[in-house]
Amino acid sequence: MSSDNATAVAARHGREALATALLSLQTAGLAEHLVERAVEATAAASSALYNAEAQSPTEEASASFVHSATEALQLARSEVNALRGRHHELEGAATSIARTRALLYPVLQYWL
């Protein structure tokens, strides 16, 4: 990360991608426990990314929030993947979650 705010920028782009995932999950019309868990995990990831973007005093603190977001996204991905075979309407959510993880990957690699 060459710029002082690169982590915050990645967090903002991640939140933008997650908005699509959340909307897709919430409007899928599926009364499945795994969908509820995916919504909760995706919302938690979005919240952590907001904190990384807006409330962290240092890049290191921002990276910590990004790491938390990535953990929540792992759970959301697992829940969505468990349902994708039967519910193709979750493809958009799965794609958005994967895109968000890809956007955050460079931040995680930098801080390892």
Q: Tell me the strand percentage band.
A: under 5%
Question: What is the radius of gyration?
Answer: 14 Å
What is the percent of helical residues?
A: over 70%
- Cα end-to-end separation: 12 Å
Spans where pLDDT lies below 50 across 5 or more residues: none
**Helix-strand string:** HHHH
How many helices in DSSP terms? Answer: 4
What do these coordinates show?
With 112 residues, the protein is mostly helical. Helices cover 80% and strands 0% of the residues. The protein contains four helices and no strands. The longest helix is centred in the middle third of the chain and has 26 residues. The two termini are 12 Å apart.
Question: What topology emerges from the helices and strands here?
Answer:
Layout: H1 6-26, H2 33-54, H3 59-84, H4 91-111
Helix pairs in contact: 1-2, 1-3, 1-4, 2-3, 3-4
